[in-house]
Design goal:
The mean pLDDT is 81. Among the domains are: 47 residues, no CATH class; 74 residues. 70% of the residues lie in helices and 0% in strands. It is an all-alpha fold.
Length: 242
């Protein structure tokens, strides 16, 4: 009994079309394989959504438009409610400022996703502006400028360094996880250092040292496994798995 060249279902001898997929029965065709390939592409194209058929720039444009509608709505409704209830703008200033920064960051991400340095710089500037604005709302320059921005700068700097390491790594495996673990320990140490300088005006490290002491052996173990496997060590033999 012959079968459908497209889906493989069994066919009766007098059938000209497959009862399952509806494709024509191909017999003794010179370019049979090429025709099957074309038919498969056509068949798959029928199930693609309109969004999947869009180009990358068209998808990013839709993303920006949707993000704009969402965040602008999130800014407008609190503003209206705040104005109706208090006949002035009070608490809604905070939600409006946060949503505005989120809108700026998502817009930058749609343009500069493949330019991490530019994206992180723009995000740092916009988020720092938010912290300054929050300080101004409180009537003085306080934690936003003296604590928030240094913490933000340190975090963005570590993230950017991690991106560069991952980007230039020849092979990516457990070594990438190890770099993430080290970055986590470094971030905890920098965070405690900045907080201690802000509160006590002196550098003191306590809990972050414990974090670093905990993550370094993990990173070292991951590097060890990675380089052993890189040299051809069998994973089953390494972990003594039969």
């Amino acid at each position: 009994m012959k079968t459908c060249n497209y889906c493989g279902v069994e066919l009766e001898e007098n059938m000209n079309f497959c009862p399952l997929c509806g494709e024509p029965v191909i017999e003794n065709h010179i370019n049979q394989h090429e025709l099957i390939r074309i038919k498969k592409q056509e068949h798959q194209g029928k199930f693609l959504s309109d969004y999947q058929k869009l180009s990358g720039s068209e998808k990013r444009k839709i993303f920006r438009e949707v993000a704009g509608i969402v965040f602008l709505s999130a800014m407008l409704f609190p503003f209206i409610i705040d104005f109706i209830v208090d006949t002035t703008i009070t608490w809604s200033r905070y939600s409006i400022a946060v949503c505005a920064v989120l809108l700026v960051n998502t817009t930058m991400a749609s343009y500069w996703l493949k330019k991490p340095a530019l994206l992180l710089f723009g995000s740092f500037v916009s988020t720092s502006g938010l912290l300054v604005f929050l300080d101004i709302l409180h009537g003085s320059i306080g934690w936003g400028v003296k604590l928030g921005i240094p913490l933000l700068f340190a975090a963005y700097l570590i993230i950017y360094g991690l991106i560069l390491i991952v980007k230039h790594a020849r092979k990516k495996g457990l070594n990438i996880i190890a770099f993430f673990v080290i970055a986590l320990g470094l971030l905890s140490m920098v965070t405690e250092g900045i907080i201690s300088l802000y509160i006590k005006n002196q550098l003191e490290l306590y809990w972050s040292i414990i974090v670093v002491a905990s993550v370094l052996p993990i990173a070292a173990f991951l590097f060890f496994i990675y380089y052993r496997l890189k040299k051809g060590t069998d994973l089953k033999k390494f972990f003594h798995v039969n």
